[in-house]
């Protein structure tokens, strides 16, 4: 990873979110910020708002939420391990998110069909379609 930028330097919020790997592109970061999914120091922010070490960032993606403190700034997007060094996540936020992911896994795997339909299933589907077309 590039060495952390000195603490007096700042970066745009959308660039930091992209470099910290919360969004795949800067455009997706901008859309999330404009949609109110990202808060900086407890307030809605604009994509060009400056972020510096010590800033508090809250990110909402779907049903997941991160409460972060900016630790360092990087102008380049690196691997996930390096990106994780750019922020500290609150322990409560981490445990809440892990619990939601665990619950989603337990619910999702119970009734979801796996793979292609069997020959018997395909025949039932064909019978159903023919019965409703007539």
TrEMBL record:
**Which keywords appear in this protein's UniProt record, sorted alphabetically?**
DNA-binding, RNA-binding
Region named Disordered = 91-134
**Where does the RNA-binding S4 domain start and stop, copy by copy?**
11-72
Q: Which family is this sequence assigned to?
A: Belongs to the HSP15 family.
**Pfam families given in the database record:** S4 (PF01479)
Q: Which domain of life is it from?
A: Bacteria
Looking at the keywords, is Nucleotidyltransferase present?
no
Species name: Thioalkalicoccus limnaeus
InterPro entries, from UniProt? Answer: HSP15 (IPR025708), S4_RNA-bd (IPR002942), S4_RNA-bd_sf (IPR036986)
Basic and acidic residues bias (residue ranges) = 92-107, 123-134
**UniProt-recorded name of the protein:** Heat shock protein 15
């Amino acid at each position: 990873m590039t060495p952390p930028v000195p603490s007096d330097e700042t970066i745009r919020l959308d660039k930091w979110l992209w470099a910290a790997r919360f969004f795949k592109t800067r455009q997706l970061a901008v859309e999330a910020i404009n949609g109110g999914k990202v808060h900086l120091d407890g307030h809605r922010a604009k994509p060009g708002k400056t972020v510096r070490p010590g800033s508090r960032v809250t990110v909402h993606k779907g049903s997941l939420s991160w409460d972060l403190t900016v630790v360092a700034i990087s102008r380049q997007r690196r691997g996930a391990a390096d990106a994780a060094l750019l922020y500290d996540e609150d322990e409560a936020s981490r445990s809440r998110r892990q619990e939601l992911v665990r619950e989603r896994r337990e619910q999702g795997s119970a009734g979801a069909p796996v793979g292609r339909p069997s020959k018997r299933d395909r025949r039932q589907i064909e019978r159903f379609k023919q019965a409703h077309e007539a």
